[in-house]
Design goal:
The structure holds 2 protein chains of 2 kinds.
Chain A (H helix, E strand, L loop, with lengths): L4 H21 L3 H25 L5 H33 L13
Chain B lengths: L1 H25 L3 H21 L3 H24 L14 H21 L13 H11 L2 H22 L6 H13 L6 H4 L3 H4 L9
Classes of the chains: A mainly alpha, B mainly alpha.
Chain lengths: 104, 205
């Protein structure tokens, strides 16, 4: 049995689901960001698998796409962590269960 | 033999990636969770290498393993009085149900779909090809990405800048200068509502 496209796609799907569950269920804001990063990495893994095993005309564009995703993820995590710091400065907590100022 | 080595590399790296991700889920300490994230990202970089995507693998190690994990550790250590634990919220049971449905759907699509003729060829000279297509074919997204990164970093610095101690005093003394006063007592201008506000369970000191 050779390792083919389906192996990488299944691995990416599993990793995406683990990241999705972390992002949905963690209390800490940094934990939620970790889950989002895992989801983005799973998508990158899927794209690179298509770059290797897919048709020849997408081999380069998928890798360029991965580079863009990594750049956007870096911007997202920088702003997200800065927001976590601001929330901590005002509320002394970064638990997403306790930042309920808008709940009324 | 080479095929056996490839199999071994794939399964070992897959176990490393999924194991690291699962340890994030169950580890009790947030700092340990970030360390497990680093391990998972290293596994993904190795998987990029098994897919012959060497440039992407190096970028992954540089940005995720090097930069983003350190940024997360900084954010954890700059919030010293927040909770360190990595526990789940109350909605984790319905979230698990949703995630299970998503997992079944994506795995079914990944395995069951006919992905067309499978090519087994890797690009050579990937860094040169990616760089050329970035400045030829994808020049507009490239520039937009540059603007996005600049705006995000300036925004992050502006948000995270520590100016709560001298900020109100500074603004008030500026206002006092405008009003013609000469000196102002800092104790009068630090507004207390943030300190006295009940933070419903948070540890205030």
């Amino acid at each position: 049995m050779t390792i083919g496209l389906e192996h990488y796609l299944a691995l990416g799907a599993l990793l995406f689901c683990i990241g999705f569950f972390i992002a949905l269920s963690k209390k800490n804001a940094v934990g939620v960001l970790i889950g989002v990063e895992l989801m983005l990495n799973a998508v990158n893994l899927t794209l690179v698998a298509f770059s290797r095993f897919g048709s020849a005309e997408v081999a380069l564009s998928t890798q360029v796409f991965v580079v863009f995703i990594i750049a956007v993820a870096a911007a997202e995590v920088a702003v997200g962590l800065a927001l976590a710091l601001v929330v901590y400065r005002n509320r002394q907590t970064i638990s997403v269960d306790r930042t309920t100022l808008l709940k009324g | 033999m080479s095929d056996f080595g490839f199999h071994l590399a794939f399964w070992a790296l897959a176990a490393m990636t999924l194991g690291g991700a699962s340890m994030i889920l169950i580890s009790r300490n947030l700092i340990h969770a970030v360390i497990w994230l680093v391990m998972s990202m290293l596994g993904i970089a190795g998987l990029y290498l098994t897919l012959s995507a060497d440039f992407i693998a190096v970028v992954q190690v540089l940005i995720y393993v090097g930069a983003i994990s350190v940024l997360m550790l900084f954010a954890i250590m700059l919030t010293p009085r927040a909770e360190r634990d990595n526990s789940q919220t109350k909605i984790s049971a319905p979230a698990g149900l949703v995630v299970l449905l998503v997992m079944i759907a994506t795995m079914w699509v990944a395995v069951d779909t006919d992905w067309g003729p499978v090519r087994d060829g890797a690009l050579t000279e990937q860094a040169r090809l990616i760089g050329e297509s970035l400045i030829k074919h994808y020049i507009l997204p490239f520039e937009i990405g540059a603007v996005l990164l600049t705006a995000a970093l300036v925004g992050a610095i502006a948000l995270a800048r520590q100016d709560e101690e001298d900020g109100p005093v500074h603004a008030a003394s500026l206002q006092a200068e405008l009003d013609g006063e000469t000196s102002i007592d800092p104790a009068d201008v630090i507004d207390p509502p943030l300190a006295s506000e009940p933070s419903d369970g948070g540890t205030t000191s």
